[in-house]
Amino acid sequence: MKDIDPALRIKASLKNGVEAKEGYDAFVIALKDLIETSISENPDDPQRGTYISEYLRDSVDAFNAFVIEDVIKRVIRNYLTEYNVDVDRIDVFPDEINNEYVVSIPVRESDVSEVSRNLKIVLEKYR
User: Fold this and answer.
1) Under 8 Å between Cβ of 40 and 46
2) CA within 13 Å, CB half, 107
3) Cα–Cα distances in angstroms (integers) from residue 28 to residues 35, 43, 58, 80, 96, in the given order
4) Which of 125, 31, 127 is nearest to 77 (CA)?
5) What is the pLDDT of residue 12?
6) How far apart are CA 60 and CA 124, in angstroms?
């Protein structure tokens, strides 16, 4: 008795399992991981992460936007050096009406590419 039918066909979308991300897509995942991880949460590197979640509990204002911008620039400089990010052009804008911060990060497609994609992230204030 056979366990698997030899005529079994696998969907093309399932052949690779998990698709590897590269370039811009990999940067998005890595940055999300850094922003969502708190300091001392990672046992391999306790300094890896941010306190951004603490600033999302306070009222949305220009000072907190400046601090969040500084934190994002620091983690990109320290942990995401292999990506082509113009760290000096990262901006965080407070949107007080919607209780959120809008983060704008220019990311180049590759080392040889001059084309930048502008990553927009919205960080919502905790209620």
Assistant:
1) yes
2) 23
3) 11, 22, 25, 10, 25
4) 31
5) 57
6) 9
SS3 content of the chain, % helix, strand, coil (to 5): 35, 20, 50
Q: In this structure, what CATH number is given to the domain that contains residue 50?
A: 3.10.450.40
Task: Please determine, for residue 122, whether its predicted confidence score (pLDDT) is greater than 70.
Answer: yes
Residues 59-97 pLDDT 10s: 888 999 999 999 999 998 988 888 888 888 999 999 988
| Residues of the domain holding 54 | 20-124
Question: What total of structural domains would you count in the chain?
Answer: 1
Q: Which two tokens stand for residue 76?
A: 């990109």
- Is 65 within 8 Å of 101 (Cβ atoms)? yes
As a whole number of angstroms, the distance between CA 97 and CA 95 comes to 6
| 56 CB-near residues (< 8 Å, 6+ apart) | 101, 123, 124, 125, 126
Asked if the structure places residue 83 within a domain, the reply is yes
